[in-house]
Amino acid sequence: xxxxxxxxxxxxxxxxxxxxxxxxxxxxxxxxxxxxxxxxxxxxxxxxxxxxxxxxxxxxxxxxxxxxxxxxxxxxxxxxxxxxxxxxxxxxxxxxxxxxxxxxxxxxxxxxxxxxxxxxxxxxxxxxxxxxxxxxxxxxxxxxxxxxxxxxxxxxxxxxxxxxxxxxxxxxxxxxxxxxxxxxxxxxxxxxxxxxxxxxxxxxxxxxxxxxxxxxxxxxxxxxxxxxxxxxxxxxxxxxxxxxxxxxxxxxxxxxxxxxxxxxxxxxxxxxxxxxxxxxxxxxxxxxxx
Length: 290
What we know:
Elements: E1 10-15, H1 19-24, E2 32-36, H2 46-59, E3 66-70, H3 79-87, E4 93-96, H4 102-114, E5 122-127, H5 130-134, H6 136-140, E6 146-151, H7 153-160, H8 172-184, E7 188-191, H9 200-213, E8 217-220, H10 226-232, H11 237-255, E9 261-263, E10 266-268, H12 270-288
Parallel strand pairs: 1-2, 1-8, 2-3, 3-4, 4-5, 5-6, 6-7, 7-8
Antiparallel strand pairs: 9-10
């Protein structure tokens, strides 16, 4: 499946030290699961959590859910061993925290390859510091393994000395730059987490803002938020129906040796067909998950 058509509407963080949560993850409705060895694990539990997560990943049973292992940074005592374990864990992707340069991405990739990572294991990068935002374009171009940029808005607001607002004014520039870099290099882009689990309206608003900005989905911290993200980041039936009509109308125009066609009063060109095909492919992939 093309990277852009893989459903990533909801990607749920799972604490790597919580065996019960890792088991429950096999039944949640999220498109992806981030097994977290970084923020969610106390320093004294890092090695135990690593062993637990790797064992659960090798056990499998996560179905169509995309499995991502977030490691500790290379500047920590656990980062290199995390990467070596991740290489053969069976995780589909390895998420690097607080990425600030292309060089750090390439160094992580080197460690993974030496440790036996398969060619299909992707790299994901967290963009969550001022340096990371300012270097996001070079980060996005760092490696052919790179598949996704993930916003870490909580850490970013802290580093900016900003204040969390309902409209997310404090991170709007960073969000936009990250989406731009992702699209420039054909990567997926995931929005940051919504922290207030009691603010359902805020979650809905944040998801819709992320969708309108171009994000593929949202990272989440609780299973109860999955359904909202899945609903908002999925193509609507009306969008899918129109996408199919766009594809059909353009094919008919080509058969008649026409380069463009007008559908419902709107001009349809090749660029619209490309997006329509992505919409249909995404909708079919979601439907295939049941």
